[in-house]
Amino acid sequence: MKKYFFSIVFIINFLYTQAALQTHTEPKETDTTQSENEKKTVNKTFLPQVYGIIKADFEWNTEEGESRFVVRNARLGLKGDLSPVVNYLMGMDLSDEGSFKVLSAFADLKPIQKEKHKMFLRLGYQKPLFSTEYLRTPMQIFFARRSMLVDEMTGGIVDVGLVANYAYANNILPFDVAVGVFNGMGYKNTPFKTPNYSARVRLHPYEGLRLVAQYYGGHNINANPLNTWSVECAYENENLLIEAEYFHRQIEFIDSAFVKKNEGILVETYYKFPLKNVGFLHYIAPTARWEMLGSQIFQEPIQLAGLTMGVNLGVDKSFFKAEIRLNYEKYFKQVISSRQDMFILEMVIAI
Q: 79-279+287-305: what CATH class?
């Protein structure tokens, strides 16, 4: 872990130093025809941006009567634009609940960047564009812990591959479509004969309303055929978010005739109440989440369900964001689960 850490820190320091030198280099005499605005654009484009997220918790397990402090995330990354049509992002987590993890390392090519038509190609190590909740960062997730349903349905879906995304912002029904191909559940996989693949369609019929259908298929890390799909409906404005998602997953085990099916529903919401003249705080946001998981949730008893209630106190500055989150998670279980009832006090900071 130390080797990875010092290597990445060295790379970030080197790139940032070179960018700073480039930014402060005096223009040559032959550059006198270049406008000041063009110079500023070039410098700003080349300069990498370092970003980070720290997320620390205190947990009180009310079922076992135990408590602990935990650093849930300590993320560090580098992103930037090499030109108006090429950018990059590299990210890692120094402590994903105690483990080092590479999160992403990809480059974007944007061949189409018009007012209504946009397209990008993304090549590298990345999450496929599947499930809005799964794609959120620890700062964007407005609970202390990610949904147990999303963890179950998307666990391990991160890989090396190519994604193409096209968006058309028309006046009737704005939409975007994405397709992707991947090695298959991990960057250490050997060359594939059949890739994994993903697809997503998002519709925006009204301002703030989002309808999504998405699919991820191929095989899991044990080479068992895998098919996962979900649909979402969400409404969001400046202060309110309400979101619902249905998941369906099927795994066919190659060493037996067993087919495992899972279904689940997630509903979550928050509302930000702006605060004025209340010290350093900018808003308070009550949050609520209901989720349930089973083999066939509309025909058989629910195997696991969870209710999370909370409140977030937030600071929203231009150069950093922070929240103090207080959550209580209550689980209703028909099967053995790693999730247990608990209170969580969390501090998360993002720059």
A: mainly beta
